[in-house]
Write a structure and sequence with these properties.
The chain is α+β, with helices and mostly antiparallel strands and about 190 residues long. The chain is about 15% helix and about 30% strand.
Length: about 190
C-alpha cells in the first residue's frame, strides 16, 4: 500500500524539502513540518498559496495526482479583489485565454467568506476596494493558473487556498499539520 500524506501547507512554505535558493536562505520548507522519509510532493503550491498538498512514496500515485492528463479536479477557495459579476464567473466557466493558451472550462461560483484560519501575514485590507470569495475548480495545473485566470477576468487574487484534490480535502487539518492515509495508485 502506498503512503499518502495530506498536508495543509501554510503561506510562505516551499513545496520542497530543502531550500535551493540563495546561500544562507532560511525559508521554511516541507522538512520543517513533515519528518517522513521517502515521500515526495505530488504537484506543487506556490510559496504565496496555502492549502492541500499531497505527498506520497508511490511514483504511479504521484503521477496520477499531478499529471493533467488524468483531469483530477482541484478546488480552490479564492479571495479576489473587487466584487465579481456573473459575466466574469461565466468567462471562467467557459475558459479564459492566458499567454500560454486557453484554459479548460472551470467550475466557478461566488461563495460566502469561508471563515478560514488567519493568514500570516494578513491579506492587505483597503477600505475603498471591496473583495469577495470564489470557489474555483480546475482540471489542469499550469504555473500560477488560478491567479492568472482571476486576473484575466479583472479580479486579482488576494488569497489562494487549495481545499481539495479529487476526494482528498484539508477539512479538519490545521495549517502546518498533516494526516496520513493509505492509498493505491489506481484508487482513492
Amino acid at each position: 500500500m502506498a503512503r499518502l500524506i495530506l498536508f495543509n501547507k501554510p503561506y510562505g512554505v516551499l513545496c520542497q524539502f530543502t531550500d535551493r535558493g540563495t546561500a544562507g536562505s532560511t525559508r521554511p520548507t516541507l522538512s520543517h513540518h513533515i519528518d517522513i522519509p521517502g515521500v515526495y510532493p505530488a504537484g506543487r503550491l506556490d510559496l504565496d498559496s496555502e492549502g492541500l498538498l499531497l505527498l506520497t512514496d508511490d511514483g504511479r500515485l504521484q503521477a496520477r495526482i499531478a499529471d493533467p492528463k488524468f483531469k483530477l479536479p482541484k478546488t480552490y477557495l479564492v479571495q479576489i479583489e473587487g466584487d465579481v459579476v456573473e459575466a466574469s464567473l461565466e468567462a471562467l466557466r467557459r475558459g479564459v485565454t492566458l499567454k500560454d493558451g486557453p484554459t479548460r472550462p472551470a467550475e466557478a461560483e461566488r461563495i460566502a467568506d469561508p471563515m478560514l484560519w488567519p493568514r500570516d501575514p494578513p491579506v492587505r485590507f483597503r477600505k475603498t476596494v471591496p473583495d469577495c470569495w470564489l470557489k474555483l475548480t480546475i482540471r489542469e495545473g499550469r504555473n500560477r493558473q488560478v491567479r492568472r485566470m482571476t486576473a484575466a477576468v479583472g479580479h486579482p487574487t488576494l488569497r489562494l487556498v487549495r481545499w481539495s484534490i479529487g476526494d482528498w480535502t484539508i477539512e479538519g487539518i490545521q495549517p502546518g499539520e498533516w494526516r496520513e492515509m493509505t492509498a493505491t495508485a489506481g484508487k482513492r
